[in-house]
Design a protein that fits this description.
The protein is an alpha/beta fold. 42% of the residues lie in helices and 15% in strands. The protein binds nicotinamide-adenine-dinucleotide and beta-L-rhamnopyranose. Beta-L-rhamnopyranose binds next to loops.
């Protein structure tokens, strides 16, 4: 019960990594609020699963790219759960596309959702934690893509480097308030975000064969690392980034 009595908020909590983290947080004793973007059926299913575990759960719809969604989510969740102890900034998109003809709207939208969205959400959560006066923990879902490139991800990888950097700077800005800020850097995890990209069996096999642990990741592989960084077991960890990639990053020679 690493998160017993904690109030945990997760953006993009209706599917994939966010969903797995939300359910594991509840298993570890937390009450949970999820944000999602027009994904009511999946969000309702996460809420029902968490309530079946005997914990409180709420879902708040909102586009993280809109700054007003951040205050709406944090305020709504704090009212429903009685406060905010942990914030997981997870929502993100990756519309795979070639570089030379990348449409400007695709670049703008990816930056707005992944980077601006993370900034406004983390800022709103931090202000709530500062008002409460009891510290807190923030975990951002960055990516192995903060450290390596991707041919069809030239709009996306800078956002993931940005989220990683945001946690480093926020760790300094918020340390005096007892708020820790860390990121996880997932490798390739099988979710809707890369379903099309990995539908080519050759690409999928090539990616998997480079991973020392011998398989692509599942959303649940991220749940433990996120819960750990959110928990008091990590009480002296801030400004850190934890690769969760089956060893892919170090496998260069
Ligand atoms: P996913 O597509 O399964 O889930 C994305 C979630 O984000 C959904 O709940 C969706 O409703 C939500 N979302 C999307 N756009 C939103 C918006 N504008 N506002 C609010 N919510 C929005 O994807 P996933 O793989 O679980 O991705 C989650 C995070 O993990 C992303 O930030 C992604 O960059 C990161 N990541 C994923 C992988 C991977 O291989 N799957 C690897 C590294 C990092
Ligand atoms: C990740 C990483 C994965 C990719 C997803 C969409 O950051 O690059 O390989 O599948 O993004």
């Amino acid at each position: 019960m690493l998160l017993e009595g904690k109030r945990v908020l997760i953006t993009g909590g209706s599917r994939g990594i966010g969903r797995a983290a939300a359910i594991e947080a509840a298993r570890q004793g937390a009450d949970v609020a999820i944000n999602h973007f027009d994904d009511h059926v999946h969000a309702d299913s996460v809420v029902a699963t968490i309530r079946d575990l005997g914990r409180q759960a709420v879902a708040v719809e909102g586009d993280v790219a809109a700054p007003a969604s951040a205050t709406a989510f944090v305020t709504g969740a704090a009212e429903a759960l009685g406060g905010v102890d942990v914030f997981v900034s997870n929502a993100g998109i990756c519309p795979f596309h070639a570089f030379l003809d990348m449409p400007a709207e695709m670049l703008e939208r990816t930056l707005r959702v992944n980077l601006h969205g993370a900034f406004y959400m983390v800022q709103a959560a931090a202000n709530q934690m500062v008002r409460q006066g009891n510290g807190g923990a923030i975990v951002a879902v960055s990516s192995i893509s903060a450290l390596v490139g991707g041919e069809y991800q030239t709009h996306y990888t800078p956002t993931k480097a940005g989220v990683h950097s945001l946690m480093q700077s926020a760790a300094i800005a918020l340390g005096r308030h007892g708020i820790r800020c860390n990121s996880v850097l997932p490798g390739t995890i099988l979710t809707d975000i890369n379903k099309d990209d990995l539908s080519d069996p050759d690409k999928r096999e090539r990616m998997a064969s480079r991973i020392p642990l011998g398989r692509l990741g599942e959303p649940e592989d991220l749940a433990g690392p996120i819960v750990f960084l959110a928990s008091d077991l990590a009480r002296y960890v801030t400004g850190a980034a934890l690769l969760v990639d089956g060893g892919a990053f170090v496998n260069l020679q």
